[in-house]
Write a structure and sequence with these properties.
Layout: E1 2-6, H1 29-32, H2 36-39, E2 47-51, H3 52-56, H4 67-81, E3 89-93, H5 109-118, E4 123-125, H6 145-167, E5 173-178, H7 183-196, E6 200-203, H8 211-222, E7 230-233, H9 242-247, E8 250-254, H10 257-264, E9 270-271, E10 276-277, E11 280-281, H11 289-296, H12 302-322, H13 326-341, H14 349-358, H15 367-372, E12 378-379, H16 381-402
Parallel strand pairs: 1-2, 1-8, 2-3, 3-4, 4-5, 5-6, 6-7, 7-8, 11-12
Antiparallel strand pairs: 9-10
Helix pairs in contact: 6-7, 7-8, 10-16, 12-13, 13-14
Bound molecules: zinc ion.
The site of zinc ion has 6 residues, from helix 15 and helix 16.
Amino acid sequence: MKFYFPDSQDLVSPTYDFINDEYSPYRVRQRDDVYAHQVVTPIPYDGILVSKAVVDGSMNGAGKYSAPQRERFYRLGVKNFFRLPETCSTIGDCGAFNYIDEERPPYEVDEVLDFYGRCGFDAGISIDHIIFGYIPEESDAEPEEAWINRQQISLELAEDFITAAPASGARFEPVGAAQGWGPRSYAHSVQELQKMGYRRIALGGMVPLKSHEILACLRAIDAIRAPGTQLHLLGINRVDSMEQFARHGVTSFDSTSVFRQAFMDDRNNYHTATDSYTAIRVPQVDGNPALKRLILSGSVSQAQAITAERTCLRALREFDHEGTPLEDVLAALETYESLVLGPKKKSYLSYYERTLSDAPWRACPCALCGTHGIEIAIFRGTERNKRRGFHNLTVLEAKMRSLAFN
Ligand SMILES: [Zn+2]
């Protein structure tokens, strides 16, 4: 089972100064900042997934690349741009989420073939159009006309894609994108793609589905799946179901979810093999919009906020290094939290107490926890938050490696 990490230009600066919270004056972002595969070993994924919409930008401004970055990406190709080791493979897609509201995908087959070929991808997924709707097998509800259209569009583009690929001199593996609204319609897409000649098929639009719904689709696909056909699950990460998925021909998946949970989830920010913890929120006074508003309106004094923020950071570091009593740290956190949250919002203190008593970073074998200690458990700014995301990727990697199908 291979795990691909979708690129969203998530890098960290190795020379970041955590004590003073500042970047090195000598830092050159594009030269010095590093990806997860450059800071943790073993590399926490088998490859990366890069979306054309993310590189090129799209109508709703989803692009993550500046113009010079995009120029470098096209000039260097995907392997050199990401400084990928030989063991890491690459897969390209169009980033269908970015044009989900459009009538048709905004790309032509030729330009997508050119993108995959010119940038040196190992595999490239045909252009597809996401269907957001699910009808269980036992229901006799009718699909919306738009869903049928989107499936038809995806199949036609897949046919054009695999037909035109050889003529374009493409050396990447063509992957057909299957869209559907339930077990039978996914099976229909897979069957059509196999007829076109695809041996690797990516199942799209399954992100909102429950694991048992994904399994129902996989079972329906089993009935028509050719022996050599491999399946990829787009945007799906269900560690608990992966062994079952593998039995139905799934050989790869991609997902940002464990990475994003580090700074998007309300509670499960720091993962371990068997558990997850809430990261300790110590927002920067000048980087927190809610706190800034309170300061501007005069309800909180800026000096008081800065003092509380610094006290928290000092207490947390002393707790980690010198064993300051837990109650003292919690008292500092409570003071700052009451300023940031105001009286009505819910408190995280009981979660922090658990995080601090267990101090899971002390037992973590990853290089980042070893280097940064408690900093990685502090919810504050991109350098800490992304490192915690990278840490979560290492935990996922270890979980995947421990599963029976490996
Ligand atoms: Zn770690």
